[in-house]
Amino acid sequence: MNEVFAIYGASGCGRSLMPVAREQLAILNNKSRVVFIDDALQDNTLVNGCVAMNYEAFKALNYAYKSVLIAIANSTIREQIANKLEKDSISLWQVQATSTFIMDEVTISKGAALSPFVTIGANVTIGRCFQANLYSYVEHDCVIGDYVTFAPRVSCNGNIHIHDHAYIGAGAVIKQGTPDKPLIIGKGAIVGMGAIVTRDVPAGAVVVGNPARLLIKS
């Protein structure tokens, strides 16, 4: 096959997703080349047995089809890279572990990274370049914006709307909303590790604790 796939970012997130990506291709019987892209490393550096190269070197590879998963925690940088890929006509790659469970009537936009043991409930809509780390879940009737990040073990219960660029820390629990009044996590908000969110979080705010309280206002 005249294809090459890449994970953009060879730090912890990228290294954790590489085995998931290779397994996905193996199940599809796709024997295409898989590499890391990392502009901080010298070309042809080996990272966990996989070649890493900078973006310009990746662009120069002679393949008819190129696809990239962006494994960068910073959502602003993730968006910048996604825009760069689009400009260069390089596809966003979605990587999903075999243990990921996706229920009925789910829409996921391009570029998602779904780690092992992630669950997506029924009637969920998810935006561009979503990252869901180990054991996280999104329950029924949620709407997730673009470039949203879930750290491990996030519990996002039903009828929750999470706006673009929000970050939900490890072990955080978001209380279920209702169909007529979904609980809202605003654009760019940060929910701290282990926080228990029982009410709306304003755009740009940082909340921590149980119950979650404002640490930084937008």
TrEMBL record:
The record marks 141 as: Increases basicity of active site His. Residues 6-85 form the PglD N-terminal domain. One of its GO terms (molecular function) is transferase activity. The active site is at residue 140. It comes from the Bacteria. SUPFAM superfamilies: Trimeric LpxA-like enzymes. Keywords: Transferase. It holds the Pfam family PglD_N. The keyword Cytoplasm does not apply. Gene3D superfamilies: 3.40.50.20, Hexapeptide repeat proteins. Belongs to the transferase hexapeptide repeat family. This is Acetyltransferase. It comes from Psychrobacter urativorans.
